[in-house]
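Before the break, one more example. Copy the sequence into your notebook; we will annotate it together after we see the structure.
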Amino acid sequence: MSLKMLIFDYKDAEKKFFKRHQFHDFDIEFFESSLNETTVGNLPQEIKDTASVISVFITSEITPKILEQFPNLMIISTRSTGYDHIDIDACCNKNIKVLNVENYGAHSVVQYTFALMLALVRRLIPALNDSHAFKFDTNNYVGRELNALTLGVIGTGAIGASICKIAHAFGMRILAFDYLQRPELTRDYHVEYTEKENIYKEADIISLHVPLTKETKHLITKRELALMKHTAIIINTARGELIESEDLYNALLNKNIAGAGLDVTECEKISLGYGDITEKLENSDKECISKVIITRRLSQLNNVIITPHVAYNTQDSINRILSVTFDSIKDCLQGGHANQVN
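Here is what the structure looks like once it is written out:
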C-alpha cells in the first residue's frame, strides 16, 4: 500500500523532476499553494486524515493548529536548509519527524552571492537602467575591482567556505568569523579568522552565511553598521532577520554604508511571497507590517538590490533538493535519522 504524501509550494521547475522520476511507494498530491492556517481549511478532510508525509518550502508555516488537522502525520520534510517556519516543539510533542535538506545550495547560492556583489561593485543596475532609457553617463558607473577589496564572511559552513574559495580566486583579502574555524581555509585560501567587530571595521564587502537562531537574529543593527566603512556593501542570501531592516535603511539613506544586496528580507512571506498581499497584511502583526514598509522603501534606493529569495533557484539545485528529500523520507521510514532536525 502506498503512503499518502502532500507536496505544497509546488513549482514549475519541480514538475520537471517528477516527469523524470517515479515514486511508486507514495501516493502524492501536489498543491501550488503554501500550507498555512488559511489554506489548510480548503483541504478535503479525507486528505488531511490520510496524510502521512507532508513536504513544504519556507513559504509555508507549520503551527500547532496546522498539526492538529493531520491526525496521522508522521513526517514533515522541508525542501530547504532552514526550518524556522516549522514549530519544532509542537512536532516533537506529536512525535512527528522533521527533515531538511543540507548543502543543496553550495553552488547556486554562492554563485548568486557573487552576482549580487559584482552587480553592486560594478554599478550594473544604474548602467542597465540608463540603457533601457537610452541615456548614458559613464560617470555614474565607476566601480571597483574585487581583487582590490577585502571580503568579510560571517559563517564558514558549506556555503561560506565556498564563498571564501571563490573570493580567493578573485584575489580578494578574506576575513572570516565562525565559532568553528576551518584550518583548511586558512591554509589553502589565506582566510584570516577574526572577531566580527574587525570584519565590520575592515571589510569592503560583508556577506552573511549563518542560520537564523535566537543568537543571530538582528546580527546587524545600527551598532554594527556604525562600525562599517562608508564604502561598505552588505550581502545577505541567508535569512532576512539577520539584519535589522530599519537600521539598514537609515544607514543607506544617510550614506553611512554604500549599498546592500538582499535576496532575503524581514517578514518576506508577506513582502516577497506569493499571494494577495492585502490579505496577508490583514493577518499580520504591526511589527511585521512595519518591516514590509521598510522593505518597500529599501527597494526604492538606487544602491540596493532586492530579489525574492531565489539564490538557490536553479534547476540543478531543485533536482538535488527533491532527490535528497525522498532519500531522507525513505531513510526515516526505515528507522534512520538522515537529515532529521528533531
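The mean pLDDT is 93. The radius of gyration is 21 Å. Try to locate both features in your own notes.
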